[in-house]
Amino acid sequence: MLHGSSSSGNGYHRVGKQRGGQPRRGRRGSGVGFRSSHYSQQLHVPPCTEYDKAYFRAYSDIGIHEEMIKDHVRTSTYRAAIMQYQDSISGKVVMDVGCGTGILAIFCANAGAKRVYAVDASDIAFQATEIVKSNNLSDKVIVLHGRVEDVNIEEMVDVIISEWMGYLLLYETMLPSVIFARDKWLKPGGLILPSHATLYMAPVTHSVRYHESVDFWRDVYGINMTSMLPLAKQCAFEEPCVETITGENVLTWPSAVIHVDCYTVLAKELESISAKYKFVSMLQAPLHGFALWFDVEFDGPHIPSNEHVQDFERSSSELILHPNNTCKKRIKSNEAIVLSTAPEDDPTHWQQTLIYFYEPIELKQNQIIEGSITLSQSKENARFLNIHLEYSRSGGRSFVKETAMR
Ligand SMILES: C[S@@+](CC[C@H](N)C(=O)[O-])C[C@H]1O[C@@H](n2cnc3c(N)ncnc32)[C@H](O)[C@@H]1O
């Protein structure tokens, strides 16, 4: 059903030969309200690289879908959000960008959607088709096997749903595909779930972790193995670590690195993100590095306020946050459901991402630690993130850490 001919039994065009071939050009309407800028130029269809093909192959494995679906916080929050927006979904046309097994598309069909286009470029789409059939939803859920950038449907949609978030929020670089779908297929005033996302960072102390990975080599069964220390530090801390910490590891309130409004963000703005930060330690403790995590909110479009404009300064390819961006409490609009991956909340399969220093820094209570972080899509493979971290303690020297999430 999914491969072969260029159009399906439902009359919707299939990808087949187009994939990796000539880029197609998107439909455009007139500019309306909050999405006005997106309708003034033709959409660029990015090429499907060998890295992209490998990425989609990875999603054909059952294990990754099992892990995501078994992440109860993730899956039940999406289902709750769909039910909260049932009035906006019932009788409407939905697109699920990256449907995987089709679970979110089926939630939407069960919430009364008239039609759901469930799009996935991975071969997991074959399973999604079977799952849709065995739930007697083939008349409502149309599984399209292909990149959302390449598929063709014959109508605009009222709702876009997608689970696109990677580690550090932006790893995997799937959000640009959601932006592409928004600009091509979403009706003006349509709903995007989730609607907003925020990446946070905070300084952490984690002596147990440092001891297990590094100090352990100082005395091994009475043998001095300190010569192993440089290698141990490099192996343990060269790259970001995905692991679970608790609120007790966090030395102060987090700072927002980026806030993404899925209704308005441009793919170009995600290519490189820089934020400055300034923390005041609440404790005396060794600082071992920084933790990063994100949350996403399921909401309608936010009306831009002056406060928002003051917080963010846009340049062509960067979003820069000013250092007073530390937040005591997440400020969310009324009633919006939030999927959080914060250390103080229930654990998810995203855990937290830790960027450890090679050497801890002794912090006194009320001491300031400040610097900047830049996350940039790798030139080699845009799904990878290069990380440039600058940090210094008040009165101390400055450090730079370059690392990458591959
Ligand atoms: C994180 S999984 C989510 C799967 C499913 N929606 C769920 O919630 O269980 C992301 C899925 O999006 C697909 N995907 C990523 N980018 C895509 C694109 N540009 N076009 C189509 N599918 C894409 C991947 O193959 C993968 O199956």
TrEMBL record:
One of its GO terms (biological process) is methylation. Keywords: Methyltransferase, S-adenosyl-L-methionine, Transferase. InterPro entries: Arg_MeTrfase, PRMT_dom, SAM-dependent_MTases_sf. Residues 1-10 have a biased composition (Polar residues). Residues 1-36 are annotated as: Disordered. Residues 14-28 have a biased composition (Basic residues). Pfam families: PrmA (PF06325), PRMT_C (PF22528). It comes from the Eukaryota. GO terms for molecular function: histone methyltransferase activity; protein-arginine N-methyltransferase activity. Residues 196-302, 334-393 form the Protein arginine N-methyltransferase domain. Arginine methyltransferase that can both catalyze the formation of omega-N monomethylarginine (MMA) and asymmetrical dimethylarginine (aDMA). This is Protein arginine N-methyltransferase domain-containing protein.
